[in-house]
Every structure is written in structure tokens, then in C-alpha cells.
Specification:
Distance between the termini: 53 Å
Radius of gyration: 18 Å
Largest sheet: none
Number of helices: 9
Number of strands: 0
Helix content: over 70%
Structural class: mainly alpha
Order of helices and strands: HHHHHHHHH
Oligomer: single chain
Shape: globular
Strand content: under 5%
């Protein structure tokens, strides 16, 4: 592990760690956008839906590689495995791998399993919280707190929208046509 310590020390004192975190947060937001696109394409364009699912699998693979990198660089692997960042990564990666494996085997998911997968995919937005590690370096504490609060509200609205959409899509004859209507429904309920 001497190499891991040297790489970790280099990353702490360079901009590479910040660049990886920013790229990861951007990819997290993009993967949530892919999920929203899938909810639109599922009924209208099966070919586009299949391409978006493949893109989502590739994204999950990138997230796994990133998780493995941070695990390798962690001074205490046990502490890293128990960290919020690691748990979010595992919670958002594992269901996608299981879903693809079951789909490849021809197993059709139940509505409850579909809801669990949807929730785990929506939880990818939580990966954006890594940016607050960078925010600790922001001199103005008030700006950092306002940004954190705004992101927290956005995450709550988005996760609730996924739940609204999934419940409507699986259990109601008059369902939302796509996830954007779920977001609208949550905004109406909150206001």
C-alpha cells in the first residue's frame, strides 16, 4: 500500500481530487437526467430507452471504478466502507447491476423491485454532496450553508418526485406520463 499512500498524498495536494469530485458530481447529475429521459422514452421509443439503459449501466461502471479508487486510497478501508460517501455509492450502484443481471436472465421485475431500483437511481443525486467537501474551503460560510440548504431541498423534492412517479406508474390507471409530472406533483403538494 505504499503506492496508495503516495497517490493519496499527491491527490490531497493537487487539484486532481477536486477535479474528480466535480466530474463525479456532474456525472451524477447527468445520470439522473438520463433516468428522467428513460421515464419519457420507456413508452414512446423502446430503442432510445434501451440506449439510455446502456448509458446508465456504463455510468454505474464509472461510479464503481471511482468507488474502488477511493477505497484503495483510503487510509482506513473499514472507515471508508462505513462512510456516507461509500454507502451512497454502494446503494446507487448495486441495484443497477442486479437489475441488469436479472434483465439479461429474462427475469421481469415486480413493481416493488422497480420502485427500489428507481429510488436507488434517484439517490445518485446524493453523490453531489461531495462538492461540499470542496465547499469547506469557501471563505464565506453563509454562501456554503445556503448552497447546502438549496441542494438539500432539491434532493428532497427529486426523491419524492421519483416516489410519486413510481407509485403512479405502477399502481394507478391514471399515471403520470413521465417523471417531470412527478416533480410538478411534489411542488404542488409542498406549496
Amino acid at each position: 500500500a505504499p503506492l496508495a499512500r503516495r497517490v493519496a498524498a499527491y491527490m490531497e495536494h493537487s487539484r486532481l481530487k477536486a477535479a474528480i469530485n466535480i466530474a463525479s458530481a456532474a456525472l451524477s447529475v447527468a445520470s439522473v437526467g438520463v433516468y428522467v429521459g428513460e421515464t419519457r422514452a420507456a413508452a414512446d421509443d423502446p430503442a432510445l430507452y434501451a440506449r439510455l439503459r446502456l448509458l446508465d449501466l456504463v455510468t454505474a461502471g464509472v461510479f464503481f471504478l471511482e468507488w474502488a479508487l477511493w477505497l484503495w486510497l483510503a487510509p482506513s478501508r473499514r472507515r471508508y466502507l462505513q462512510s456516507f460517501q461509500s454507502l451512497v455509492d454502494l446503494f446507487t450502484i448495486a441495484p443497477m447491476v442486479v437489475s441488469y443481471a436479472l434483465g439479461a436472465a429474462g427475469v421481469r421485475m415486480t413493481p416493488a423491485a422497480s420502485a427500489a431500483e428507481s429510488l436507488s437511481r434517484a439517490a445518485r443525486i446524493l453523490r453531489v454532496y461531495r462538492l461540499f467537501e470542496l465547499g469547506r474551503r469557501v471563505r464565506d460560510e453563509a454562501v456554503s450553508r445556503v448552497c447546502e440548504l438549496a441542494l438539500t431541498v432539491a434532493v428532497i423534492v427529486f426523491v419524492l418526485a421519483v416516489l410519486f412517479y413510481d407509485i403512479e406508474a405502477n399502481y394507478s390507471a391514471d399515471s403520470y406520463p413521465d417523471l417531470t409530472f412527478g416533480v410538478w406533483g411534489v411542488c404542488q403538494a409542498v406549496s
